[in-house]
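INFO batch 0412 | record 1 of 1 | parsing
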Amino acid sequence: MMVFSSADPVFLAVVFFATAVLYSAVGNAGASGYLAVMTFAGLAPEAMKSTALLLNISVALITTVRFYRAGYFSWPVFWPFTVTAMPCAFLGGVLVLPSPLYRVLVGIVLVFAAYRLFWYTDETKPRITAVPLVPALLLGAVLGFASGLTGIGGGIFLGPLLMMMGWAEPRHSAGVSAAFILVNSVAGLSGETVSVQALPSAAPLWVCAVVVGGLAGSELGVRRLAEVTLRRLLALVLLVAGLKLLLDRR
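INFO prediction complete | emitting tokens
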């Protein structure tokens, strides 16, 4: 394992802060970004998932409260996905990481979602409809399991799905995604404690960094960014995460 100087945790805190700003602006908590940063930094793989989930919880809690208080949350959209996602996220947290083929498939899905969101216009925006119960329960189970298995909270999948299917407007999608990430990350980390290794000693510093980033990014998301900007920021996030998964051949 690579040996780092004492300044490296501070540098990573700065990068985590920037990641949290971007992700929280679109209702995400940043797990895919944190995992990418930790991979490039050479952190031990056994500590990466638990660290990403911990940072996810820190940012998702802030983002959820901000979007909820601003009125961008819908319980009828949220609960059908969550009721099956939480137990599956716990199970995924207990199990080992996915296979390389799974990483490639998820990467393809994220890149495709990024393409759809970036070119998605108001003229083609579908009418908002009610979430169908059975598909939501099934999708929640799949997304929850994937989130617990990888350390990604699941909102990066749920957000574009809600918009592409016409189940939520962009800001409501961001609010629901933030809450979805929060509960999945808590469930996933609970499952991860069955076999979790010690967190890095710099974890408290990194939590502080992402909390500040989450406060700044969620403020941008609920008050200052246009919907087109939100969609394109989310497309950028999905593209980076997808390429990371596709290019990582471990």
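INFO post-check: Residues 45-69 form the longest helix (25 residues).
INFO record closed
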